[in-house]
């Protein structure tokens, strides 16, 4: 069958549905059938599923002209989705096409939710088309004879590639693809991505830089322009609106008319804790909504989440309070309105969320922005501009993630084993490991087989062994089992299952939160008030509670930073206040009383001014610096400055940062004039000073947690599964300390340092920020008390610390609090 | 390195607290050490977790250091001497025992699952507790009428607060009215934060100093 005939099959089907294919869909069909690889840039709900499933099926028809009567067995194509919640939707869409066109292809799903029984059945006979996640794909690579499974695969599609790209799951995908390219000779690789700043790079990463696959590829843009309107919710009584906070509950009543006016509203929050609180408060203040509003976040059990998703589609819900768990995928046509609570921190994310509403072609998307504190209105104003200019940020791919490489090589050693000489070129062909040296690779191999770089006398390290012919293989069944359980690079704190005493699964919760509770304590979870009965075997057993007041679980990982694009817009916005020429937005006008007060107690900096404020409170001596460069830059700058000052005198700092600036807090006064005289903002020795400040603040310790889990240094086990791991519990922090003292050149340990800043900060962003600052005039204001700008920073409780004092001297000045009787 | 110790008196007996976490009982010429967890690193390595091997020698260096400092007649381990099943670190331990002149006694802890026969081969006496005058030595902290209990097991730590939102978490000796809990001696052991009450005394340890903590 020629291409035209194949197209006719698809177009006939489309017209049977009374649809008309978009130009980008047809373009994708053509390119795919021409044997090309590619990246499709298309938003959710645009018909991207049919852009790629259709040519995959057509390709099968082409290869098997007697497809109606003769069925060729075996796996033919793989669809990767980062969220397993999306898989059902994708399956249904595909089934519809193959059934109605009479192509007898089977479609299967394999994710963490797939039952053991079904997995076993799949192992015996793979479906023709498989929908799966990056982790489940790795698990397939960890099973014996995987090369036969993938031999006839002619297409793999990586959906939502932009989501994977900036994460270690992206690295996992790159490595899997490098393997598949070898074992599936007919493979075509396609990615689907929402709009990001670095689409071309996204294609490079997907296909491999300088690869044959890349040369034979296309970038197709759907170009579906959508009108987006941003509406800020401005408090009526600005004077009583708080200067700090991140919940935004003061404006709860303002969202009620919005919800009432539209069919379905999604309220996006930034953290799961915020999501829980909003859901509860909405019901408390407006009991009439009972049964009409729901909540959706990643810790809630699957059944509830699926129910919520269905209910949105059935138009049976007025509003859903959610987190980024609803950012992706599924097309919810009935959603008319979006409310973003608190700064979205990035333009792409904001646009994506806005895009969840008004799905019908030609309809405009409306997104309301609800600020959680006064200064956030500046952000609202900047967002308006960002949306107008479509300034979208990049997703930065990881480089040299040795933890993922260790995991991947162990995966191969668990299944069929590998020969280093065969595998090295594949690894080096990926974007992540394009610069890996033979020496580094050797290091990783030694790490796998010896657990160190040389053979030791008393050592009993056991993981991967080298067979006589040079094959690297895992022989220990226990090692293999633990590895399979631990595959996956999305790392979270150890999670416990929340269950009713009488049975009934509610969801999962981070261990550190539970550890703060005592039996009898009441906490809110999944929108209910629950009383903790006891914690046993990784299960949190709870009873329903009628008590009103409760603790709200807070989940880590909710902290995001402004992108550099957003930070620049924010600065520009702020500078309009002091400028006489520019027009001031209504958001900023609403803030005028705060700016007046800031001006009175300090200054509102203009484009050529860099503001530093110092003042004393009962907490100690505060020094606040305002670069307006986004949280990540401030984390780096804050520890760098703390380090440089700590060289001048023995001092201890507690460092806080937000998107506007950072604070150095100490129990002694710093001589700011001395700081300025010493030119501490110089870019000279930036790299080595930053490295040293990292050592001092131990910020890398936090990063090491993921690395330790991914590379198999610590064993976490899985929720719901009780793993007998006698005497193998240890925190990654402890291992970090041992590395620090005994093996500081370990690549995994060093990776923690590199990731702390280099990945978070786009290349050179810190340097650019410092150069910008040194071109400004520094204005140091010794203030009498905390200023409006400083308030959100000094009240932040998540802090880093740095000290150049002797530990014993500090202990002598500190106290331990007595248990209250 | 000069170390700064702390002397405390319990039931008119004198104990010297050492920065390594060991406590020396002057009148009995006996050194008390809790929770060394020998073999832990090897146990991890045996199971595929590449904790640096060179770290395991540190425990023996520390043992030598503190033995050299006090030169006690008796060395009493208050449990969790060996972390798990027998592994090659046992050979290092055996060698170390043969070189040691002090008499060694082990009060077995929950981690001590190696057969007592093995210890007897090394002339180490194993028991579940030890009563000396009014002092009761155990692994798990316990309260017994008429006795002062010295134990380990908890790996006590203390959280300190200071001006300028300073926070520290440090290993410590934790003394209650009738109890003294020793910090974990071994490296790679971790700690568990305890909250002191009014009559408690807490002694934080740094690499070279034992410091009594201010409580309020």
Shape by Cα distribution of chain B? globular
Strand order of the largest sheet of chain A: 3-4-2-5-6-1-7
Helix count of chain B equals 4
Q: Give the biggest sheet of chain B.
A: 9 strands, mixed
Identify the overall geometry of chain A. Answer: globular
Mean pLDDT of chain B, as a whole number? Answer: 94
Number of strands of chain B: 17
Q: What Rg of chain B, in angstroms, do the CA atoms define?
A: 17 Å
Q: Low-confidence segments of chain A, ≥5 residues, pLDDT <50?
A: 489-493, 554-559, 718-724
Assembly state of the chains shown: heterodimer
What is the H/E order of chain B?
EEEEHHEHEHEEEEEEEEEEE
**Tally of DSSP helical segments of chain A:** 33
State the distance separating the first and last CA atoms of chain A. Answer: 84 Å
Percentage of β-strand residues of chain A: 15-25%
Mean pLDDT of chain A, to the nearest integer, reads: 85
Structural class of chain A: alpha/beta
- How many angstroms separate the termini of chain B? 32 Å
Can you walk through the features of this model?
- The complex is a heterodimer of chains A (821) and B (216).
- Chain A is of the alpha/beta class and 821 residues long.
- In chain A, β19 and β20 form a beta hairpin.
- Chain A is globular.
- About 2% of the residues of chain A have low confidence.
- Chain B has 216 residues and is an alpha/beta fold.
- Chain B has 4 helices and 17 strands.
- In chain B, strands 8, 9, 10, 11, 12, 13, 14, 15 and 16 form a 9-stranded mixed beta sheet that branches. Chain B has a 7-stranded mixed beta sheet with strand order 1-2-3-4-5-6-7.
- In chain B, β15 and β16 form a beta hairpin.
- The two termini of chain B are 32 Å apart.
- The mean pLDDT of chain B is 94.
- Chains A and B meet through α20, β23, α29, α33 and β27 of A and α1, α3, β11, β12 and β17 of B.
Features:
heterodimer; A: 821 residues; alpha/beta; seven-stranded parallel sheet; 33 helices; 41% helix; B: 216 residues; nine-stranded mixed sheet; seven-stranded mixed sheet; 18% helix; globular
């Amino acid at each position: 069958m020629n291409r035209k005939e194949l197209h006719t099959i698809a177009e006939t089907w489309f017209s049977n549905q009374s649809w008309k294919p978009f130009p980008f869909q047809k373009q994708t069909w053509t390119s795919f059938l021409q044997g090309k690889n590619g990246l499709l840039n298309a938003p959710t709900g645009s018909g991207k599923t049919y852009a790629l499933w259709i040519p995959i099926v057509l390709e099968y028809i082409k290869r098997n002209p007697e497809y109606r009567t003769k069925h060729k067995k075996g796996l033919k194509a793989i669809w990767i989705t980062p969220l397993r919640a999306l898989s059902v939707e994708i399956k249904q869409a595909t089934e519809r096409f193959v059934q109605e066109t009479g192509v007898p292809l089977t479609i299967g799903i394999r994710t963490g939710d797939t039952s053991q029984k079904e997995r076993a059945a799949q192992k015996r006979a793979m479906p023709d088309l498989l929908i799966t996640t990056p982790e489940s794909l790795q698990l397939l690579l960890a099973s014996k004879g995987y090369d036969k499974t993938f031999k006839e695969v002619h297409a793999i599609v990586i959906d939502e590639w932009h989501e994977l790209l900036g994460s270690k799951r992206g690295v996992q995908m790159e490595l899997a693809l490098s393997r598949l390219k070898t074992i599936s000779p007919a493979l075509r690789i396609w990615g689907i991505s929402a709009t990001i700043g670095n689409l071309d790079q996204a294609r490079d990463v997907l296909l491999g830089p300088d690869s044959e696959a890349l040369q034979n590829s296309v970038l197709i843009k759907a170009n579906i322009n959508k009108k987006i309107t941003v509406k800020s919710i401005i408090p009526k009584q600005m004077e009583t609106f708080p200067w700090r906070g991140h919940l935004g509950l003061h404006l709860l009543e303002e969202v009620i008319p919005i919800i009432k006016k539209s069919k379905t509203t999604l309220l996006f929050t930034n953290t799961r804790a915020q999501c829980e609180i909003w859901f509860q408060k909405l019901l408390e203040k407006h009991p009439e909504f009972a049964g009409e509003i729901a909540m959706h976040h990643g810790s809630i059990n699957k059944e509830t989440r699926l129910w919520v998703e269905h209910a949105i589609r059935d138009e049976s819900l007025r509003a859903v309070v959610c987190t980024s768990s609803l950012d992706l995928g599924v097309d919810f046509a009935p959603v008319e309105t979006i409310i973003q609570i608190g700064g979205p921190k990035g333009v792409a994310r904001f646009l994506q969320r806005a895009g969840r509403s008004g799905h019908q072609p030609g309809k405009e998307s409306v997104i309301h922005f609800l600020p959680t504190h006064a200064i956030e209105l500046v952000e609202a104003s900047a967002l308006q501009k960002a949306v107008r200019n479509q300034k979208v940020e990049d997703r930065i791919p990881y480089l040299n993630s040795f933890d993922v490489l260790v995991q991947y090589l162990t995966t191969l050693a668990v299944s069929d084993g590998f020969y280093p000489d065969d595998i090295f070129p594949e690894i080096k062909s990926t974007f992540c490991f394009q610069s890996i040296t033979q020496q580094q690779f050797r290091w990783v191999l030694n790490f796998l087989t010896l657990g160190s770089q040389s053979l030791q006398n008393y050592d009993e390290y056991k993981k991967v062994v080298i067979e006589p012919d040079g094959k690297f293989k895992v022989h220990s069944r226990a090692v293999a089992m633990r590895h399979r359980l631990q595959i996956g690079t999305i790392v979270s704190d150890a999670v416990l299952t929340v269950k009713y005493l009488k049975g009934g699964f509610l969801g999962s919760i981070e261990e550190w939160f539970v550890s703060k509770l005592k039996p009898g304590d009441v906490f809110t979870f999944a929108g209910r008030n629950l009383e903790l009965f006891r914690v046993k075997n990784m299960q949190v057993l709870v009873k329903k509670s009628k008590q009103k007041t409760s603790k709200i679980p807070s989940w880590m990982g909710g902290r995001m930073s402004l992108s550099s694009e957003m930070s620049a817009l924010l600065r520009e916005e702020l500078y309009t206040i002091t400028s006489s020429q520019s027009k001031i937005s209504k958001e900023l006008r609403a803030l005028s009383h705060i700016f007046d007060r800031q001006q009175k107690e300090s200054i509102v900096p203009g484009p050529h001014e860099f503001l530093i404020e110092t003042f004393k409170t009962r907490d100690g001596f505060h020094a606040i610096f305002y670069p307006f460069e986004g949280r990540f830059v401030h984390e780096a700058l804050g520890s760098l400055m703390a380090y440089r000052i700590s060289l001048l005198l023995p001092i201890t700092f507690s460092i806080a940062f937000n998107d506007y600036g950072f604070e150095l807090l100490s129990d002694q006064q710093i001589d700011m004039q001395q700081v300025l005289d010493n030119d501490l903002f110089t870019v000279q020795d930036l790299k080595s000073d930053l490295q040293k400040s990292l050592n001092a603040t131990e910020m890398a310790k936090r990063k090491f947690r993921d690395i330790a889990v991914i590379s198999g240094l610590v064993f976490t086990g899985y929720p719901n599964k009780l793993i007998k791991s006698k005497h193998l519990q240890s925190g990654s922090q402890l291992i970090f300390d041992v590395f620090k003292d005994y093996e500081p050149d370990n690549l995994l340990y060093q990776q923690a340092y590199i990731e702390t800043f280099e990945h978070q900060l786009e290349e050179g962003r810190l340097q650019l920020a410092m150069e910008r600052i040194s071109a400004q005039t520094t204005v140091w204001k010794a203030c009498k008390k905390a200023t409006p700008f400083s308030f959100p920073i000094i009240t932040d409780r998540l802090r880093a610390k740095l000290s150049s004092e002797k530990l014993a001297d500090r202990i002598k000045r500190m106290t331990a609090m007595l248990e209250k009787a | 390195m000069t170390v700064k110790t702390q002397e405390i008196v319990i039931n008119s007996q004198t104990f010297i607290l050492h920065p390594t976490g060991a406590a020396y009982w002057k009148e009995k010429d006996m050194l008390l050490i809790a929770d060394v967890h020998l073999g832990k690193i090897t146990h991890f390595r045996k199971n595929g977790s590449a904790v640096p091997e060179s770290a395991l020698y540190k425990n023996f260096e520390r043992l030598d250091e503190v033995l050299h400092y006090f030169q006690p007649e008796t060395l009493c381990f208050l449990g969790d001497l060996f972390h798990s099943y027998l592994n090659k670190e046992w050979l290092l331990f055996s060698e170390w025992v043969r070189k040691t002149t002090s008499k060694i006694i082990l009060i077995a802890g929950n981690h001590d699952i190696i057969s007592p026969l093995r210890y007897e081969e090394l002339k180490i006496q194993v028991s579940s507790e030890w009563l000396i005058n009014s002092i009761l030595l155990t692994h798990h902290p316990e309260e017994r009428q008429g006795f002062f209990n010295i134990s380990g097991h908890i790996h006590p730590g203390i959280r300190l607060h200071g001006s300028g939102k300073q926070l520290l978490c440090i290993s410590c000796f934790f003394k209650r009215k009738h109890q003294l809990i020793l910090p974990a001696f071994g490296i790679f052991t971790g700690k568990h934060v305890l909250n002191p009450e009014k009559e408690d005394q807490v002694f934080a340890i740094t690499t070279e100093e034992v410091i009594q903590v201010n409580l309020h």
